[in-house]
Amino acid sequence: MFRYLFILLFFHIYSFSQSFDETESKIKSLYNFSLTQGKSYDWLEHLSNQVGSRLSGSLGAERAVEWAKQELENLKLDKVWIEPVMVPKWVRGNFEYASIESSTGNSINVSVCALGGSIATPSNGIRAQVIEIRSIEELKKLGKKEIQEKIVFFNSPMDPTEINTFLAYRKLVNLRRNGAKEATKYGAIAVVIRSLNLVNDDFPHTGSMSYGKTKLNQRIPALSISTNGANLLSSMIKLDPSLKFFIKQNCKNYPDVLSYNVIGEIEGYEYPKKIILIATHLDSWDLGDGSHDNGSGVVQSMEVLNNFKSLKIRPRHTIRVVLFMNNENSLSGSKEYLKNSIKKSENHLFALESDSGGFSPRGFSFDSSTQIFKKVKNWNQFFKPFFADNFYISDSGVDIKLFKSTGSVLSSLKTDSQKYFEYHNSAQDIFSKVNKRELELGSAAISSLVYLVDTFGL
Predict the structure, then answer these.
(1) Which tens digits make up the pLDDT trace of 323-334?
(2) Residues linked to residue 80 through DSSP beta bridges, in sequence order
C-alpha cells in the first residue's frame, strides 16, 4: 500500500516538474524571440514617424487603420477585419497663445494648449483677471460673486509622494475633465488647468474635457498650461492679484465621423468560441506622435500574434487582438466592439490591456474573483527572472473595464510609471522617448501571460 502511494507521489512530482520545466522553457523562448526577432520596435517606428498622431476623425487615424490592418494581414492570421464605429471629430486649429499681463504693462508668454473637446476663444482672444484655486470644492465655496467674468486657474499639482504615478493622476483627472463645466455655473469666462505632469517643464499636456449638459451658448474655452507656466502665473498673481491673463485658441468640434476598430485573431483548436482578448487603443492625442500613449500598446498587442505564429504555438483558445479607435475622448471603439460582441453572444474568457507606456514591465493587475487570482498569482514565479512578477488585484484599464459586466477576467500590464506623465498627452510623447529593450520586454511579458492563460485556463 505504502509502495503504491509512493509510486503515485513520485509520478505526480515528476509530472509537475516536467510541466514546470516545459512552461518555463516556453516563456523563455517568448522572451528570447521578442528581444531578438520581434517586430514591435520597427512597427512603432513606422506608426510614430510615418503615420504620426492619430486623433479620432483625423487623416492620421485613417492611415493608422489602414496600416494596422495591412500589418495584421501580413502575419497570415486566421482572420483580420475592421469594425465600423462613429467617433467624435475635434480639430485643434492654429497654435494656441497665452500671456501674463501685469498692471505695469509687462507681458510674458507662457505655453498652453487647448483641452480636447474645448471650444475656441473669440477671434480676438480673451483678456481677463485670473482667480487661482485648487479644486472644484474651492470653486463652489467662492461662488459666483468671486468667479464671474474671470478666468479660473486650477493650479493643483500632482502628488510627488505617490509612487504609483497613475494614482496621483487619477486624483486630478476629473478636475481637467469637469473644470470648465463646473466653472461655467459660476460665471467664469474660461478655465486654465495646470498640466498633469510631475516634472517642471514648458510642455503643456492636453487631454479630454467635457461640458456635460451645458448649453452650447454657455460653454467656455478650456486650456492646459505647462507646469513652468503654472508656477510663474501663480507667483505673479501673489505679487499682483489684479493682473490680466490673455488666451487665444481656435479649435473646433465637428459632427461625428466614420472610423474603424482593427481586429485580428488566431482561432483556437480546442475552444475556438472562447476568446482571449488583447485590447488597446489605436488613436492618440495630436501634440506628439503617440508613441507611449498608445503606440507601444498597439505594437505589443500585435507582437503577441506574431510570437504565436513565428514560434508555431497553436493556441487552445482563440487569441484575438482588437485595436480600438477613440479611447482618448469618448471610448466609442470599445463600446461599439462590446455591443457587437454581445449581439453575437461571444465569450471573452480573458481580456488584457496594455496602456501604460513602453516602459519596463513590472507585472500585471487583475480584476477577478479571489479564487481565480489565487491561481493566477502562482504564475508570477515564471516572471521573476524578468522582474515582472508583481501580480495584484486592482481595477482594469478603461478600454476593457466595460467587459467586467460580461464576466470576463480582466488584466492590465503594469510598467515602471515614473516617467510616463512627463510625456503623456504632450509634444514629448514621441518615438525617440521609447527604449527598444523596454518595449520588447513588455511584448514578451504580455505574450507569456496570454500563453499561460491559454495553456492552463482560468
Answers:
(1) 999 998 889 999
(2) 264
